[in-house]
Amino acid sequence: MSLDKDYLLQKSKEEILKIFTSEYPLEKIPEFIAEEVSGFGTTQDERAHNFQEFMKILVLQYQQSQEMGIEVSFVEKPFHQWQNLSKDLALLVQEFDLSIKSKVGVNTIDFRLSSLFEWKQDSWKLIHWHGSTPVNVEKDAWHVTEWQKKNDELKQKVEEQTQNLMLKNEQLQKAKEQIEDTLKELKETQDLLIQSEKMASLGELTAGIAHEIQNPLNFVNNFSELSNELLEEIQEEIENKDFDEVKAICQDLKGNLEKINHHGKRADSIVKGMLQHSRASTGQKEWTDLNGLADEYLRLAYHGLRAKDKSFNSELKMDLDPNLPKVEIIAQDFGRVLLNMINNSFYSVNEKKQQLGESFQPVVSVSTKLLDGQIQLKISDNGNGIPEEIRHKIFQPFFTTKETGQGTGLGLSLSYDIIKAHGGTIKVESKIGEGTSILIEISQKKE
Amino acid sequence: MKILVVDDEVDVKTLFEQRFRKEIRSKAVDFVFAFSGKEALQYIDQLNHEAILILSDINMPGMSGLELLKEIKQKELVPKPIVMMISAYGDEQNYNTAKSLGADEFLTKPVDFKLLKEKLQLN
Ligand SMILES: [Mg+2]
């Protein structure tokens, strides 16, 4: 029986091949095909889930082969066969060189066919088949190599881009470092400029300082000499027993000592002011007599300019509120603000004097006032005024209307920063041809 | 002798009053003080026709001593006042300007009172 079965399987195999190559009478097909047959052909639409669908494929194939006059021949290659233990299932795995001869020519393809047979009612019937021709890509049926290639290309692209990005990043880093360097250089230049601005104004001050120191020193010398003489007179009057006169001289002596003390302090504060001005700001706030500071810097600025330019002169007006309390400020910084403002005023009136000549009387005034807990400091002049179109620019660094070499353009900008750091405000009022007033306001109370 | 001292330093008044204590007491001199050029001109107008000596600082805010000197010379006062100018030590330029404007004497700071007294013929 088993021999029969093997023989019949061999037979079925051959018949099936004939069926697939359209060489078998259609009406005899059901003998070898199961009702529940399913499978795939080599083309995309060749699929069947039952006998009818299977037959449809075959009918179409038979028609095509007749129309085209197709003759199919094949050379069978070694095949694989398998049966289950109960010998009622058989698997055939075959491969052929399939030659399709038509009117057009011969086409040879590699044809693979797997077919599963079931022993049923004393015959082998096809229950599943799968025909295929291998894709003509060596060892890459699943496009793995292609994908790998694409992947590699992508990887390379990514690498290139990464490289690019890294390069750009490096360039950016370099640019950043360059900017940082430039910034540092700028900061150093700024510090240098601030220092040179300070030194420039110090230069202007030096002559004023020399002059300003001379007067108090003269007084100190004169009043101490006089006091010495007065002491001798006292001795004389004691001998004369004119005690009223002794009393009177003592009174003078006391006055003189007070004057010596006053002028000594005056010289001292001028020297201190100069040293403070040239030194870097300590940033230390101290209780300061703003009136004294204003008076000192107005004189210093005035004499400084006079020393530089003998033809320059201006009336100085001081209207200092005697009730002004001491304020906690960085005196050194505030002095610089005063000096800047006053110097600007002098510059302005001097310019106008040179334009108008004798008929113009320059006046620069400084006033202080306590108003609602606010301390007001006003520096006014009757100079040419600041044109409207540049008024908003005057606090910008490096802005100057002075000729090259005459100003750094930092004075007002530094002043602005200083006042801001004191929590104060700085306002400019100006009328063309009439003059300018700078109003500085700071709170009397600690911030 | 009437002497008008012009200086923006207020303490100059005390200084002169003490330096010339004896002369003031003996009425050898009579000082008046002005603390600006403007004030000085007002005095000069008030003291018209009185023989005076003017002793003026140069470095003063507003009207400087040199401007004051110019004004005084323009007034062509009778009798002509003697004008002595005082300025900072070693100030060639002011000295020359004062000279050319017709200053009679020139003193430098610090004022040597002995010398001044000699010049005023008070010794
Ligand atoms: Mg003076």
TrEMBL record, chain B:
It comes from the Bacteria. GO terms for biological process: phosphorelay signal transduction system. Pfam families: Response_reg. The keyword Phosphoprotein applies. Keywords: Phosphoprotein. This is Response regulator receiver domain-containing protein. The lineage of its organism: Bacteria, Pseudomonadati, Bacteroidota, Cytophagia, Cytophagales. Residues 2-123 form the Response regulatory domain. The modification 4-aspartylphosphate is found at D57.
